[in-house]
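Re-running the complex after MR caught last week's input typo. The corrected sequence lines follow. Everything else is unchanged.
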Amino acid sequence: MNEQDDPLSSSQATKAELLRVLPNLRAFAMSLCGASDRADDLVQETVVKAWSKLHTFQEGTNLRAWLFTILRNEFYTQLRKGRREVADEDGVFSERLTTPAGQMGHLDLQDFKKALTCLPDDQKEALILVGASGFSYEEAAQVCGVAVGTVKSRVSRARRRLAELLELEGDGEFGADAISNQILSCAGA
Amino acid sequence: MENVSKKNPATPPASAENTMEAVGPRPKERSHAQQVIGQKLQEMYAQMLSEPIPTRIIDLLEQLDAVESAEAERKSNDGGQE
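Corrected-run output:
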């Protein structure tokens, strides 16, 4: 058997690409899970799955979307099994928002992360994929297994919900306490 | 104390449950709030991206590679002998 006929050696390029995608994949996992230990578990299981299915991957197609799809499926499988709880281990939700609402431009990153955990998973993943991971709406639709229009609508709802939670569109009705209580209650603290 | 918040009248009304914003990238129409959200999202993500890949994941990849190489060698040896 010579090198060219060996499917294992022909996937070397794919493996190199996998390595390149890893940081993005892990960031996506962290965005979904919150806690980085769980995210790493998720990435680890994704890597094992991807490795065993590498021969089914068609070179030249979208490896990044393929990997994200595997990770996403793994995430929901674990969620269904109850292996991953929604509650945050680090206990960040036991704190109040650190920044008073309405001070635009001074939005604390921690507060943003807390608000993000309030979103339903389907909205959160759509927002992350399109707004941070660098996916097009079409790619995100492929990863999530839904229509492009569904992704668009989820992203749109996610953005509006965040603006509400962080009082960015603020009409001044709610004070900082009301907002933080909103976030605390939806975070299941 | 100066109130720096700006209200943007272009904010989509709550009743617009459809894909208003998603019709296409229209940064000019995006409200200030949405710009802030976009920035924070990317700031958060950039922070995560900048973290080194944990050694346990790198180790795992090396193990997988080693196992695979060993298997490939074994298979090619078997094929050669019979």
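None of the earlier attempt is carried over here. Helices of chain B lie at 32-50, 55-81. Chain B touches chain A through 45 residues (CB under 8 Å).
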